[in-house]
Amino acid sequence: MNLSTDHIIKLTQGDESVFNEIYDGMFHSLCLFGYKMISQEDVVSDVVQEVFVELWKKREQFTTPIKTRAYLYTAVRNKILNHIRNKRTVSLEGTPRDEEDVNNYITAEETYRLISEAVKHLPEQTGRVIELALNGYGNPEIAENLNVSINTVKTLKKNGYAKLRVLLKDQVFVLMILAEIFK
User: What is the value of pTM for the model shown?
Assistant: First the structure.
């Protein structure tokens, strides 16, 4: 979800529809983040829901999208770490240990989300080619998978990348990553 200043203003004013939009837009990403630390779906889901309840209770304290997003990820991480400590049944291996790890994860997750959202706006065949390319498939594998020629794959990739550049023009960091992928 592209959390905006407008979202935060409406959230602080108690707008439940905006809260629901934030919840729907970020719940999955926060759960994926939690699964990196503990592979218990029910625990992660409960933790993320608890964090959203706390967000609602503390909504007046949030002033920017960045602080709000950081709060959500940090709160999920801390609650899961507390759960792990209390249960002492799960290894802490793979758990983001410091703020830099959390920030790197958030950046990667947000980049993936932005690209995935943009790919949904591409024509169907172009979107499939781009998704396969993003998943590491080469042109011959994509051509075989989609039963098209390699030249068709190259053309669809080129057109898809051009459309993604337009769709993501305000996301310089994402564009740099795409440029690396589609060299």
Answer: 0.54
